[in-house]
Design brief:
chaperone, 3 helices, Methane Monooxygenase Hydroxylase, Chain G, domain 1, mainly alpha, elongated, about 75% helix, cytoskeleton
């Protein structure tokens, strides 16, 4: 006879929290890099236009900018999903809220909050 598997979720471990914290931190940094790169590229295009550079060069740089801008929605989506998961993990009553991993995770959540707002 087969036993029915319980519908309960796997207990959250400190390792799970540490991994998800790393994902949130890394994805937040990635988002920041893409935003910084986009601004840098916009400034570069403006300089080229001010210098009356070849239209081909300007258009090529605009293509580079578009590629960077296309990465932003996916990165934001991944950051939001990881952030939401981490917040849910931190609300679990079974974890040790005083552990180093949890304290670090809470700090990462605070730092990432403006990015997902």
């Amino acid at each position: 006879m087969l036993k029915k598997q319980s519908a309960t979720k796997k207990p959250i471990t400190l390792r799970d929290i540490k991994i998800k914290s790393g994902v949130v931190k890394r994805t937040g940094q990635e988002l920041g890099m893409y935003e910084k790169e986009a601004q840098k590229q916009k400034d570069h295009i403006q300089r080229l236009q001010d210098q009356n550079a070849d239209i081909h060069d300007i258009n090529k740089q605009k293509e580079v900018l578009e590629e960077t801008l296309m990465m932003l929605p996916d990165t934001k989506k991944r950051l939001f999903a990881a952030y939401k998961d981490l917040v849910e993990m931190l609300q679990d009553a079974s974890i040790d809220h005083e552990s180093e991993e949890v304290v670090l995770a809470k700090s990462i959540v605070e730092n990432a909050a403006p990015l997902v707002a």
